[in-house]
Amino acid sequence: EADIYQTPRYLVIGTGKKITLECSQTMGHDKMYWYQQDPGMELHLIHYSYGVNSTEKGDLSSESTVSRIRTEHFPLTLESARPSHTSQYLCASSGRTSGSRSSYNEQFFGPGTRLTVL
Amino acid sequence: KNQVEQSPQSLIILEGKNCTLQCNYTVSPFSNLRWYKQDTGRGPVSLTIMTFSENTKSNGRYTATLDADTKQSSLHITASQLSDSASYICVVSDRGSTLGRLYFGRGTQLTVWP
């Protein structure tokens, strides 16, 4: 089982609040990702990072921001939450660590954070 | 446009029966194809990964096939169990970037009834 963690698992919050979704991995992976997934829909990449101090926007435009100060930590922040931000947010990581599956640059996913903005 | 299409959208089968899920893709240049299982409210978990040169790969009761010429893949589940109820997502990676960009299908929602 992958060692990648997300907190909180569920969050219900009012409009206008600032929130931070936490993501940590203990596999020493250099690449990390944030995806957004609505029910019955495909995952959409919203942010990714090649390593410390590297962050890029993904395919789906998002008002969220990310930071990568430490290899193992990749938090996502929404400065002012809105109902349109209601979704599931999935964090993933990949990298060339030991193990044959890592040779495919396989992404390991966290359990996700279900965000509801009222 | 790079796309991944899955069928059927949803499927209900009885416990113990077999089923096959389909995936068609247009991603190019192709690097590898993965099948993930996603339980409700959880993150996807990888079942199989296949490269261009592999046309079949098994993981227990799950067997994936790949036809790189027709750009089609299937996931066959044998002797289904209640715990197989989940969304099965086909994911194709391209080799056009160092990121190893992933293209996700919308998944097939499988329900196994007792």
Q: Specify the structural class of chain A.
A: mainly beta
Strand content of chain B: over 45%
Say how many strands of chain A there are: 11
The topology string of helices and strands of chain A comes to EEEEEEEEEEE
The helicity of chain B comes to: under 10%
Radius of gyration of chain B from CA coordinates:
14 Å
Estimate the helix proportion of chain A, in percent.
under 10%
Record keyword descriptors for this entry.
heterodimer, A: 118 residues, mainly beta, 7-stranded mixed sheet, 4-stranded antiparallel sheet, 42% strand, B: 114 residues, 6-stranded mixed sheet, 5-stranded antiparallel sheet, 11 strands, 58% strand
Structure, described:
The complex is a heterodimer of chains A (118) and B (114). Chain A is mainly beta. Chain A is built from no helices and eleven strands. Chain A has strands spanning 4-7, 10-13, 19-25, 31-37, 44-49, 56-57, 65-66, 76-78, 87-94, 108-109, 113-117. In chain A, strands 2, 4, 5, 6, 9, 10 and 11 form a seven-stranded mixed beta sheet that branches. Chain A has a four-stranded antiparallel beta sheet with strand order 1-3-8-7, with no helix packed on it. In chain A, a hairpin with a 6-residue loop joins strand 5 (44-49) and strand 6. Chain A is globular. Chain B is mainly beta and 114 residues long. Chain B is built from no helices and eleven strands. In chain B, a hairpin with a 2-residue loop joins strand 6 and strand 7. The A-B interface holds A 2, 4, 6, 31, 40-45, 48, 50, 88, 90-92, 94, 101, 104-112, 114 and B 4, 32, 34, 41-46, 49, 51, 89, 93, 98-100, 102, 104-107, 109.
